[in-house]
Amino acid sequence: MSDTEARKLMLTNQLAELDRLAPWLQHRSDLELSGDTSLAIQVCLEEAIANIIMYGAVEDERVEISVGLEPAADMLVVQIEDTGREFDPTQAPSLTVAPSLTDAKPGKVGIHLMRSFSDGMTYLRDSDRNHLTLRFVQPQ
């Protein structure tokens, strides 16, 4: 497996593709994450991609989704890019009840989970591509 293949996962607009995230995260040899951190990141990625597929995809159009992880000092930066229509998941309204990992349902509390577990979430639209960046502080 090349370095590029290890750092990026390419997905299509099928919810079944979410099953590929957990093994990919577990086999990233340059990441040393605790079980809780790894689970939170996995659920956040699943929720982000489920939302992109369910709400950001254009019907009858193939949407390519790439997920990249970059460790940086005490921070893990996750980049999710897709080729679907413009879709800014950071604009979801706030919840009155704090979400938990057990409440995860694609398209329901996913964005709120990302807000709860990530230390930063930004969206950018550039050249017909959506760019979602999530940042997670890696515990010492």
How would you describe what is shown here?
- By secondary structure, this protein is α+β, with helices and mostly antiparallel strands.
- It has a single domain, classed as Histidine kinase-like ATPase, C-terminal domain (Heat Shock Protein 90).
- The chain is built from 4 helices and 5 strands, in the order H-E-H-H-E-E-H-E-E.
- Strands 1-2-3-5-4 form a 5-stranded antiparallel β-sheet.
- A hairpin with a 2-residue loop joins strand 4 (120-126) and strand 5.
- Helix 3 (35-56) packs antiparallel against helix 4 (110-117).
- The longest helix is centred in the first third of the chain and has 22 residues, at 35-56.
- It is globular and about 40 Å long.
What topology does this entry show?
Elements: H1 3-7, E1 8-11, H2 21-26, H3 35-56, E2 65-72, E3 75-82, H4 110-117, E4 120-126, E5 129-137
Antiparallel strand pairs: 1-2, 2-3, 3-5, 4-5
List keywords for this structure.
26% strand; single chain; 140 residues; globular; Heat Shock Protein 90; 29% helix; alpha+beta; five-stranded antiparallel sheet; 5 strands
Our count of domains comes out at 1
Order of helix and strand elements from N to C terminus: HEHHEEHEE
Spans of at least 5 consecutive residues with low confidence: none
Number of strands: 5
- Protein structure class: alpha+beta
Give the overall silhouette: globular
